[in-house]
Model the fold of this input.
Amino acid sequence: MIRKLTAAALFTVLARTSVALAQGTVPAGLEVPAGHTPFLTTRAEGTQNYVCVLAPKGFGWQFHGPQATLVDDTTTQVATHFLSPNPIESGAARATWQHSTDTSRVWAAAIASSTDAAFVAPGAIPWLLLKVVGRQAGPAAGASLSATLFIQRVNTAGGQAPPTGCSTAEDIGRKALVPYATDYVFYK
Done:
């Protein structure tokens, strides 16, 4: 119960926090190449999903993908975010964003990451710069996300693998769905 209240309180605070990024300040290495402009900024809330596995030095949490809902500044759902096979890369599992109205999709791969404490909150997953590596129009030629070339994940809160719960053979296969929130900025 306390854990649920903490997550709810975190998301309430985050929902009231405006996007600190409008082509603004990001850690070194996460800048989008010159000539690209943001066309969609969203707030995402969901989970970073982990599974307990046998690791080289015992047991450990392995990232298994995100699941999040993205909303615009009016809190209208814009897209969902999840892990799925990218048909352009012979089914390689990639971070995926699917538009909620026209079902256009983009797949992206992280090309830079930052845990710089001047930007990234304690206990938060890293900020990322992702490059689109696949795209697909919706069934009715929907193209809301098709122009995307880069995505920034910024203003993260939560989402890190739990510090406990994966330490014995009995824990193998256990899942942890860790609440997180972030801003995704889409560039064309």
Remarks:
- The chain has one domain: 2-21+37-187.
- Helices lie at 2-15.
- The chain is about 5% helix and 50% strand.
